[in-house]
C-alpha cells in the first residue's frame, strides 16, 4: 500500500461485522437448526425476564399500497437494536417473499454499530423460537399434534421450533394453495415429521392440541371459526399482525385467555384489535418471570396473539453477534467513515480525490 493509499484506507473503527444471507445459512447449519432455535429461545426468554430494562415503543409502521414497511427499535443500557421488515401478502405472486428483513445492533455508549445482518432467515427463526417458547408455558403438557394453517415461508420454521422446544412431531397441514401444502409436506417429511395433508382448516384442527395459524392476507380473514376451537387447545396465531390483517373469529377471543408480547403494539396490530381497548390480556414477560400463571387448567383455551416485538429481534441480534464474533461467518464491511481527526470529515473526503 502506498503512503497516500494508507492515508485514505479505512481504519479498524470503520468496519462493521456483516452477516450475509449465505453466512447466516452457514451459521445455522454449523450450529444445527434445532440447537440454534433452542439457544435463540434462551436469549429471548432471558430478555423477556428483564423486560422493564428495555426502552419500548410500538413499531413504526408505514402502510403502503400492497403491504407495510416497519422499523422496530429497542434498547437496554448497553445495546440498541432495530429491524427493518416488510409484510406484503401478495408478493409471492410476483416471485417476491411476503417478509424480508435486515437489522443492526449498536453500542449505546458510542452509537457505533457492532453488527449488520440479514434478518429474513433470522426473523423466521426468532418468530418460531418465540412461538415455541410461549407454547412451553401455555400448550397442554402432553401436546403431540399441531395443526398448521398456512404453509408458506414461516411454516417449517414453526414446526422445527415446536419439535425442538415442545417435542411435537405430528403435524396436520392445510393451505388454500395445495402447492404450499405439498412444499411444506416434502420439507417436513424430510426432517422426520409425521405429516398429514388436510383438505380444509376444519380437518386440520381435528385431534390437534396446538393450532398454528400462519397465513398472509390483508383483509380481515377468518382462518379459525368458533366451532373449530375446543376446550384445552392452544392457539399460536402468527399471521394477524397489522391493522385489518387478522385470522380469528372474534368469538374465539371472547372464550380464550389471551397472552401478548407488548399490549401497546398488539392492541393496534393483533387479533385483539377486534376487542375493546381495555379487554384483559396477560403479558408474557410476567409469565416467564413466574409472576403470573400461564396455562391454569386442562380445559382452558389459550391464545398467543403474536405480532412480533422488537425485543425478540434484539435477542436474535445479540445471539448472532456473540456467535459470529471472531469467526468467518461475519465479513468486515467498510461502513463507517472514520477520519483520523474525528472533526475533519471533509478533509478525509478531499484527500481521497484522485
Ligand atoms: N407474528 C410474527 O412475529 C410474524 C413474523 C413473521 C411473519 N408473520 C406473518 O406470518 C404470516 C405468514 O408469513 P409467511 O412469510 O409464511 O407468508 P407466505 O406468504 O410465505 O405464506 C402465507 C401462506 O398463507 C396461505 N393462505 C393465505 N390465506 C389463507 C387462508 N385463508 N387459508 C389458508 N391458507 C391461506 C397462502 O396460500 C400462503 O401459502 C404473514 O402474515 C406474516 O406477516 C408474523
Automatic annotation (TrEMBL):
Q: What is its EC number?
A: 4.3.1.12
Q: Does the keyword Disulfide bond apply?
A: no
**Keyword line:** Lyase
Q: Which InterPro entries match?
A: NAD(P)-bd_dom_sf (IPR036291), ODC_Mu_crystall (IPR003462), ODC_N (IPR023401)
Superkingdom is: Bacteria
Gene Ontology molecular function: any one: ornithine cyclodeaminase activity
| Pfam families attached to this UniProt entry | OCD_Mu_crystall
Q: Does the keyword Lyase apply?
A: yes
Query: Entry's NCBIfam families?
Result: PRK07589.1
Against PANTHER family, the record matches this protein to: KETIMINE REDUCTASE MU-CRYSTALLIN
**UniProt-recorded name of the protein:** Ornithine cyclodeaminase
Organism name: Salipiger bermudensis (strain DSM 26914 / JCM 13377 / KCTC 12554 / HTCC2601) (Pelagibaca bermudensis)
Lineage, opening ranks = Bacteria, Pseudomonadati, Pseudomonadota, Alphaproteobacteria, Rhodobacterales
